[in-house]
Amino acid sequence: MQVLVIPSTAWPSTAGAPGAHVADAVARQVATAWARAVPHADVQTVLLSDGSAGFAETARGHLADPAADGAALFLETASVAAAEVAAVRDRTGEGAADDLAEHGSSAPVGELLAAALETRARTIVVGAGDVLGADTAWADGGAGMLAALAERLGVPGASDRLRQGAGALAGIDAHDLPDLLALRDALAGRDVVVAQRGDRTLLGLGGLAAGLSQHAVGAATTQRLERNLGDLSLAVGRARSGSLVGRDLLGAPVDVATSSPDHLARALAATPGAAAGGGVGFMLAALGARVRRAIDVVADLAHLRERIAASDLVVVVAPAIDAAEVHDGVLPAVAEVALDHAVPVAALVGGSEAGRREWSAIGVAGVHETGHADAAWWTSSDEVAERVARVARTWVL
């Protein structure tokens, strides 16, 4: 019997350990307990990522030879977020969510990308965290990244306002932007990919500013930043609109040969995932990058489809099944692939806020609750082996 154990990306970070490490530890504990309970089972684990902290390490771990000349290079916004939080505190004397949203700058991401372009990597993947939080300390639509990238590449024309955060973008126009054609050309020889979790756009009810309210940003701030990000998107659309398109504009529904600059701006702002990394997704899309779900990026690297097809059972281990996990998490992504190969999916979780109708609709065959969402219980409790063994025996073939 072939069993594949896949941890959710929702396992929270603990002191000294990012969520990816916690997820790995949980998956290994479950796999060991399962193998002991069912000795004839071949139990393996595979790690996925949603683009948050640990994305680069997880993705790199699936490469046959990460050190090979020209191998894909993986970056993540999480690696520079903490430093930017400290920088905002130095500038404002505060570090609250409103301060990060207004004054945080994505410039460090531009520095990372510029350094990546100096390597021989043919593919550069940027793991973009949420709109704001532990993995993102800005909401500037990628303006700071654009300015930093332009400076590092020697492309003139970037206004200092681009580095000052979303609060400084009111009234920004095309004349404040660097030469986007030159930047697009600098990226054109590489396959630049934004790996993101959700499908938030830059603007609107499902956009970046709207998402800030989930991170304790006040209503007045979110409304002001929505207007500023709208100004930024129009400036990008109007700055040599015909030059902004990469290979396929990420599949955006726009004919760039006939579209007006404003139409192009709306299409770019409406790109699913544009809000990723505080708007880094939007700006990289404007420079020709592709935007993909991080889970799909890592799944391809891990040959997940082939591994699921070769399995008799897939077990997803999550702290809880909630709305985020059902719609954007590992569970639906895995269940979709498993359904194609008629492989059952079981969820082993701490608790579930979703009913049978919700989880069965995405292709999950069974949900087993332990009553414990704390990672410490999953990785150190003697009770884990007993609980896992009980579940494992119900799936013996």
TrEMBL record:
Gene3D superfamilies xrefs: Glycerate kinase, domain 2 (3.90.1510.10)
Any matching Pfam family: Gly_kinase
BP-aspect Gene Ontology terms: organic acid phosphorylation
Protein name per Swiss-Prot or TrEMBL: Glycerate kinase
Any GO MF annotation of the entry: glycerate kinase activity
InterPro entries in the cross-refs: Glyc_kinase_flavodox-like_fold, Glycerate_kinase, Glycerate_kinase_sf
